[in-house]
Specification:
Layout lengths: L2 H12 L4 E3 H5 L6 H13 L3 E7 L4 E6 L1 H10 L1
Antiparallel strand pairs: 1-3, 2-3
């Protein structure tokens, strides 16, 4: 799956709440943590989300949507 599809998956799965765990949304375990963090960082650089918290041991990369992220969610639904 390419990066754009991964971003859209995260946005769709977390969109109703506007925040959540990237790793949970993608169904990834700790082996993919760096990939999840890189994806969240890319999304933050695009101003779609704000990275709130990350912890490898807990497999958490918690994000919150910006207004652009919420608008992107609206276009995907």
């Amino acid at each position: 799956m390419e990066q754009q599809e991964l971003m859209d998956t995260v946005i769709k799965k977390l969109g109703m709440r506007g925040f959540g765990n990237v790793m949970e949304a993608l169904g990834w375990d700790q082996h993919k943590f760096q990939d999840g963090f890189d994806l969240a960082n890319t999304m933050q650089n695009m101003d779609l989300i704000k990275l709130l918290y990350s912890n490898f041991n807990q497999n958490n990369i918690v994000i919150e949507f910006t207004l652009l992220g919420k608008a992107r969610y609206a276009t995907l639904m």
